[in-house]
């Protein structure tokens, strides 16, 4: 008989955290679940910890495989998981003991295809931030899932950019964290529609999966309670990504390609063009990268950093987003966008490098 919930956990070199993660799952008040731990070619003690826990509990199945990235690891588990609902956790995080019980009750009582809930940010054993879902409604149904809910996850829109320039809306760049670990999804909806992670995509894979899944969902429920503890560590995938700035432009272009493919698929199937919901992110990355790569770095010369920056600004999709953007002079914040619109990339890069004039950021 299939379990009510299957939990999928891709792990790579998380030996210092994995026991805490698995202990929090085994301590759940709800027991009708199973766990798939995918060891993605770990080189530390992670494989041994996986096997030890699997030997202690028949709820845990371990999949050992060569290192191919988190997307392939999760896909491997999806092929085996039979749960009515699926949860995707990370091996360095942990959850409240009532997590599964309360989420399943919420899903069943409200006939939800997706349950989105809150999370804590934990650093050095202390809670540093509390993140509750910021949506206005408790239930999203039908078309409003793609028009009202999905845009909060896919990125920044060009309209958000215009609001930021004008200053007429509070926090227009503030979006929901697109991590899968704070949502529970219906297993059959994933399996029947072949919703999978993009192989090879190591950053931004959650966004594509979330958006594709939402395009099939009929009802999404918001729970304003935190169950998940997101543990901050400097060896996580996103931290390593930020420590290698020269690779960031290529990584961003990979994410754009994945979003473009997803956009075309949804447009063909639903007749809905979601490009407008994420094109602002492409534009804002022109400034984010100027700040990142413009910063002095003894490992790379100025020309190398600028050449990496131009790989992104010269990318066809980036050019299309810049061309699509409409800019009016509505204050000093519009100036960088006028420079971008006119192709003054060197001026933008120098401004970020010398004076840090573009050192603003947006919270996703």
Give a description of the structure.
The structure is a single chain. This protein is an alpha/beta fold and 364 residues long. Helices cover 45% and strands 17% of the residues. Strands 1, 2, 3, 4, 5, 6, 7, 8, 9 and 10 form a 10-stranded mixed sheet that branches. Strand 6 and strand 7 form a beta hairpin. Helix 7 crosses helix 12 and helix 12 runs antiparallel to helix 13. The C terminus is likely disordered.
Major sheet summary line: 10 strands, mixed
Beta fraction = 15-25%
User: Which parts are unreliable, with pLDDT below 50 for 5 consecutive residues or more?
Assistant: 357-364
Let me know the number of strands: 10
Using the CA coordinates, give the radius of gyration.
21 Å
Helix proportion? 40-55%
| Shape type | globular
Instruction: Provide the residue-averaged pLDDT.
Output: 93
What series of H and E elements makes up the topology? Answer: EHEHEHEEHEEEHHHEHHEHHHHHHH
Summarize this structure as a short list of keywords or feature phrases:
10 strands; 17% strand; alpha/beta; 364 residues; globular
Which SSEs are present, and which pair or pack?
Blueprint: E1 5-11, H1 18-26, E2 33-40, H2 46-56, E3 60-65, H3 70-78, E4 85-88, E5 94-95, H4 99-109, E6 114-123, E7 126-131, E8 139-141, H5 144-149, H6 151-154, H7 158-166, E9 183-186, H8 187-192, H9 205-214, E10 219-231, H10 237-243, H11 248-270, H12 275-294, H13 302-313, H14 316-324, H15 335-341, H16 345-355
Helix pairs in contact: 7-12, 9-11, 11-12, 11-13, 12-13, 12-14, 12-16
